[in-house]
From TrEMBL:
Organism: Rhizobium lentis
Protein name as annotated: ABC transporter permease
PANTHER family according to UniProt: SLR1174 PROTEIN, SLR1174 PROTEIN-RELATED
Keyword RNA-binding among UniProt keywords: no
Residue runs in coiled coils: none
Annotated keywords: Membrane, Transmembrane, Transmembrane helix
Length: 264
């Protein structure tokens, strides 16, 4: 655990050194949130609600969803793994005490937490002042939402690592990167909430782990799920975390064998 925290802290310090990049990330996030709010205002027009969701709720969805939940491009982890495989640096992971997936998780968790504090917070404050921001449906919903954010972050990292490890068999990280980026943006509800999906697609998206990245946390925040349902879906999300950890462990075990066989 000490090594894990050290890797995460080192990643945060490294991220903090790039001040110009931080500024560009903040500006980029503001542009993205502004675009999302503008789109939803145009969609709603003068209507008070669409599919039972009000415009203030969608503004909150746009602000929080695009900052705390889905603003970080996790597909870059796929690119990182693909580069390590292509250059042969992946072989170095065999002699390290910690497993490669665990190191990836720690090294990317740090920047994700840094992004929460340095990018997400100022963007939320600015747009809350400009447009107003609905608070959580209740204190209890707010507390459960925090747990959902933790599950969301964990799943986002695990899914990116899972896609990245597939590069050992696909040998084309770029296609996996784009596939994950598009698949995740659609099925997580990051761009369009699952409330507005066609029934067949919504039914499938509701049970996939992507939905726990943006849709379910925001459904809890806005009170679209009662507390009993919120705890049930939270348990399902934790089960997805456990399942993905097991799948990643199996993939890494197979990948290690490929490294040894191909590397002699």
């Amino acid at each position: 655990m000490r090594g894990f925290l050290a890797l995460a802290a080192a990643a945060i310090r490294q991220q903090a050194d790039y001040r110009a990049e931080i500024l560009s990330m903040v500006l980029g996030a503001m542009i993205e949130v502004f675009a999302r709010i503008s789109i939803w205002k145009a969609v709603y027009g003068g209507q008070h609600a669409v599919a039972g969701i009000t415009l203030p709720q969608m503004i909150a969805y746009a602000i929080i969803g695009a900052t705390l939940l889905s603003n970080w491009d996790a597909a870059l982890v796929v690119r990182e793994i693909g580069t390590a495989i292509r250059t042969g640096q992946i072989a170095n992971s065999l002699v390290r005490p910690a497993s490669f997936p665990l190191m990836l998780f720690a090294e990317n968790l740090g920047p994700r937490l840094f992004n929460f504090a340095v990018v997400g917070t100022p963007v939320i404050v600015v747009f809350a002042l400009l447009y107003g921001l609905l608070p959580p449906a209740s204190v209890a919903h707010g507390l459960v939402f925090i747990a959902y954010v933790a599950v969301s972050t964990t799943l986002l990292l695990l899914i990116s690592i899972l896609f990245g490890l597939l590069s050992f068999w696909v040998f084309d990280a770029h296609s996996l990167e784009w596939f994950m980026r598009g698949f995740g943006a659609l099925l997580s509800g990051g761009l369009v909430p699952l409330w507005f999906f066609p029934p067949a697609l919504a039914e499938a998206a509701h049970v996939l782990p992507f939905a726990w990245i943006t849709y379910y946390p925001m459904a809890v925040y806005l009170g679209q799920l009662d507390l009993a349902s919120a705890f049930t879906y939270l348990a399902v999300g934790i089960c997805w975390v456990a399942g993905l950890v097991g799948l990643i462990a199996a993939l890494w075990s197979g990948a290690r064998r490929r490294i040894v066989v191909q590397g002699g």
